[in-house]
Here is the input.
Amino acid sequence: MNLAYIERSLQPVLKRAASEFPAVVLTGPRQSGKTTLLLHLFGRQCRYVSLEPPDVRAAATEDPRGFLELYPAPAIFDEVQYVPDLLPYIKEKIDANRHRKGQYLLTGSQNLLLAEKVTESLAGRAAMLRLLPLSRREANGRPHDPLAWERERPPGAKTPVGFGELWKSFLRGGYPELAVQPARDAALWHASYVQTYLERDVRMLRQVGDLMQYQNFLRVLAARSAQLLSLTDVARDLGVAVNTIKAWLSVLEATYQVIVLRPYFANVGKRLVKTPKVYFTDVGTLCFLAGLRDPAHAAAGPMGGAILETAVLSEIVRTLTHRGMDPRVHFWRTRAGTEVDFVVETATGPVPIEVKLSGTPRPAMAAAIGRFQRGMKDTARPGFVVHPGDVRLPLGPAVAAVPFASL
Here is the structure.
């Protein structure tokens, strides 16, 4: 058992899925802890097989039925995107004993290929779940803490998170390996991650002719994080076709490296812009690609706002995803330029969230949220201004300032 195991919010969801479905497919970016989580929960009763080594891959491809006889259920098959043709044979095995739950636990780090193959072969037989890197609540040992708008009352006083400590955590990001090994050099780890990811996943999904050009694309995307993204402008800056940029962006989205945020439409209609924004899934990846190595420079530099926005979005998306939900997060912006950074759709209405770099919240910071709430009439819920400081206070009748650490 791994002594440094960090409890994940997805654990109860995963256990329930394995008790209700014959198969569970756990997807997410590389190194997000998928294998560790499955082995922690099911390692004693399931045989584990990685499909990444070429010899194992060849055996599974050449004789899938023989391979499944060799590794009978219950089994964990890791990185199943390497042998997608195994899935119809897994379906065959499941159908021979349809009532048995938790037969196959599969992982994969590519949503695009895997989702298509699973839909074709395992429809109705498999639960699809996602594991992203650590949320802040998981890293702090409170994986089931509610989000700010889910609490009946404000959280009690917590030990304030120091400014330097907060920004240092942004530079490191949320990958479990960096969390359990605090002495690891974060920049070195991210450099290796980006390189490995480029070599493996990008070449497997798309024939990217010029890897150097693709690396430039990643850096350009990092520099435009949290801004409206014009693919035409990016293509012109890099000297490549717009369709190439679209293809590269789809690779990043399919491998969980970026979140494409689209505008929120309710009844406001044509006054809203339609251009999306792109955020990196992990704030540490963003900082690395932006060339930031020092917490003070990250906080005070031109990327400070984008870094804090990325951290806030990441925390919301990870917290909801790890409950087995599909997060519905947008941004709101009128043609006149009034903008709310995030609008989170909930069962009881949209929650508007603004992110401000100042640790001293002021009522003026809530102006855009007020405009959104008035535009939505009775449907909008109370909003939040999230900041890097440690104060929590009301900024208006239906807006509160909350520290990032209390989100």
